[in-house]
Design brief:
10 helices; alpha/beta; eleven-stranded mixed beta sheet
């Protein structure tokens, strides 16, 4: 993700999100969720006209499930506090809290609460393409977690951007590269704050599709995530190369989820641009992306849904968000929607710190199809959705709807 067009090729993102305790609450275990970034008015920055629609516009129906608000662009700015700016919606240059670079967006409090009441999670995105987003130590990362908790989540502060609205989490979009020192400690301290809270909290990440991610790759293996929004665009491994088994690598991320991730219930999303002007490459029609989502859901039980950059682009592009929500079809829930719990005796990044509060076997609608007993498929086993296939193996199979077989 980047400011405006999200066109940089190196980006990483971590999202911490809290589900609401209500009948229509966000369900992280589903395989048809849609996450859409809001705030930077990417459409206007790319040459379009007009201000972006209000946040509440995107909460009027069940299309979007998760909305990260972009961006908190600097960790330590004026007054030692973060810099937070949402372009035309709420600018730090126009209405900051005195002595800070934090935009006063308290007029959005009721919009956020209304979105949450409809079962959507609203998070704050930290970083961005031009963001100053690094730590010098684990201790600094933990201290910054205290700041974010007080500004946006369950704490208290006189400079809360959204006033009485309590956001459901954070998104780390670290694109500048450099040290990853302090990020695991940061996430774990947020987990520590959240322990025992009335909300469920989910940690997610949005790495580039190139594996491993250049910026937060080590963090993916150091702390538990509930979902990752893999950016399958602006790279050779993007959705535009879905038919190229040597480029498309969702299987690699599925393998990470099942063999390396701390939380083996982690969900993997397909991240895509919402229009041709939202990214340098990777835009495809909603119908094409929807079919890719269906096929991926059938092949990989880790599939969680689709992520789009960004809301302004989707809105201007004939409501692309609504199109893809329909075209990706209806998935299912595994029932494992509990937050990951952290052992708060330490905030060091070790795998023993994090355990799942509940476990369940991921389900899939894929069919294990019998193979041909003759020709090149004679020695090829039937497709098994529970098996992780690398790119060269994936090219052996072809999926039509939810049916996969050798060809």
């Amino acid at each position: 993700m980047v400011f405006f067009t999200r066109s940089k090729s190196l980006a990483s993102s971590v999202v911490l999100a809290a589900g609401l305790l209500q009948a229509t609450a966000f369900d992280n275990s589903r395989s048809d969720n849609l996450a859409v970034y809001y705030g930077q008015n990417s459409y206007a920055a790319a040459g379009g006209s007009g201000a972006q629609p209000s946040l509440s516009t995107f909460c009027e129906d069940d299309t979007i499930n998760a909305i990260p608000l972009a961006f908190l662009s600097s960790f330590f700015s004026t007054g030692g506090l973060p810099e937070f700016d949402m372009a035309s919606t709420c600018s730090a240059s126009g209405n900051p809290f005195p002595g800070t670079s934090i935009a006063n967006c308290q007029f959005m409090a009721d919009q956020i609460k209304a979105c949450q009441a409809k079962g959507k999670i609203i998070t704050v995105s930290l970083g961005g393409a031009t963001g100053d987003s690094t730590f010098t130590s684990d201790a600094q990362g933990e201290q910054f977690a205290d700041t974010i908790w007080n500004l946006f989540l369950g704490g208290t502060s006189s400079t809360r951007p959204f006033g009485t609205a309590v956001l459901d989490g954070i998104d780390l979009d670290i694109e500048g590269g450099g040290s990853t020192v302090g990020f695991a400690a940061f996430v774990n301290k947020i987990r520590s704050h959240a322990k025992g809270a009335s909300k469920q909290y989910y940690v997610t990440a949005a790495p580039q599709c190139v594996f491993p991610d250049a910026n937060l790759g080590p963090i993916l293996n150091a702390v538990a995530f509930d979902a990752i929004y893999v950016q399958f665009y602006n790279n050779y491994c993007g959705v535009q190369n879905y038919d190229n088994a040597n480029a498309w690598n969702f299987g690699t991320w599925d393998n990470w989820a099942k063999t390396q991730a701390i939380n083996k219930d982690v969900k993997v999303y397909i991240g895509a641009p919402a229009s041709s002007t939202a990214a340098g490459s990777g835009y495809i029609s909603a119908s094409a992306l929807g079919q890719i989502a269906k096929d991926t859901r059938a092949k990989y039980s880790s599939f969680g849904g689709v992520m789009l950059w960004d809301a302004s682009q989707a809105y201007a592009n004939n409501h692309y968000d609504k199109q893809i929500k329909t075209d990706m079809g209806t998935g299912s829930a595994t029932g494992s929607n509990n937050a990951v719990v952290v052992n708060t005796t330490s905030t060091k990044a070790t795998s023993s710190m994090v355990t799942a509060t509940a476990t369940s076997t991921q389900t899939t609608t894929a069919t294990s199809t019998s193979t041909s007993t003759t020709g090149s498929c004679a020695t090829v086993s039937a497709w098994n959705a529970a098996t992780t296939y690398v790119a060269s193996q994936q090219s052996t199979y072809k999926c039509v709807s939810h049916d996969c077989s050798c060809f």
